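Student: Please help interpret what follows.
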Amino acid sequence: MRYLLLLIPLLSSCASSPRSEAPPVSDADRIVRELCDKQMALLGEESHHGSARTVAFKAELTRRLVEECQYDAFFIETGTYDFLHIQTLLKAGQPVSDDMLVAAIGGMWASPEMAPLIPFLAGRLRAGTLAVGGIDDQINSGTWAQKEMARELIPWFNGLGQAECGEAFDWHLAWRYDEARPYTAETPKVLLGCAKALESAFSKPGASATQEQLQLARNLVRNLTREAAARARKQAQPDGPRDWGYDISRDRSMFMNLEWLLSQSPQPRKAIVWTATVHAAKDMSSLESDDRQRIPLGTYVRERFGDQSFVLGFSASSGRYSIGTSPHTFDLAPATPDSLEGQAFLNHAADTRYLDGRQLRELGPRVARPLTYSAWTKAPWATVMDGLLIVREESPSRKAAR
């Protein structure tokens, strides 16, 4: 009885105290929960790649997906060549520095917001617990591909008896064209012939080329095929409409690279794909703009992986942005009340607002700018992406100090 009397004040105290409320779930937590069980996480961004808050969010999200959700691959929309070179070095037991990964990713993301992610990726890459690769066939400035790849190719061309090809690539990759030797519509045709000869040699049974070298040649062929076709069309129609074939071919090439990268593992990977939303989009046919003619990378991903893939877009209600880490910045027109960005912050005080697929469907077709900050586009956005994070005020990316 004495013990019961002692318990009564405690029970009374518990009954009278207010029940503690669970802390609100953050936008980042909601997104991690949605992505954790997926196989392919396509992390988009606005097409100018110059949004600091977006990059910072994506960098932290990438870290969490690897640590908390066991994602084991990180692929980014940049030239594949440097990453193929890095893989060759790793297989040979040679050192791969953080700076090599910085150069491979390229100057578009050489910002303070991206910087913390580099040692995280590089450490796991060297440990063999994370695959890292580029999915684009374009050649980026300041990379191993631009500075040194020609020297790797010249001995192969000499072995094929095509020494002029080595000189042509050395000239092209360093972009030494001038009035005496200009870049013309014939230039990519010549380079394409050289690249095809290289691919053919690397593909022959018994060839001594590595898988990485063959993949490098294939990407050169795709890049130069697209460039030669674009130059020919431009020459035939100097004032013709935009060449959507170029964009469609590039996205298709990115998917082919993604498939190849995934095929290098005997086990299915959980992959993060860091790219622009115009490439990540699962379908663009419902856009009320010329972009509806695109067939983006994300369309091929959705066809192969279905609901095991997830497209996350990003946008902003106001602020400024840049083109990559260039010093020139541009104002974002404040979002109108009827836009998707405007609706997101009605009666919402936080700095970000995450709209999941259900919310995007409920909001219906609206003007928004997750694809490019330079134009508003109307669409039923749930058909384009699976979720959208909107930043209240974006800021431009700045070049990281080295």
Notes: The radius of gyration is 25 Å. The chain has two domains: 27-136+252-359+366-394, 144-236. Residues 1-17 have pLDDT under 50 and may be disordered. The chain is about 45% helix and 15% strand.
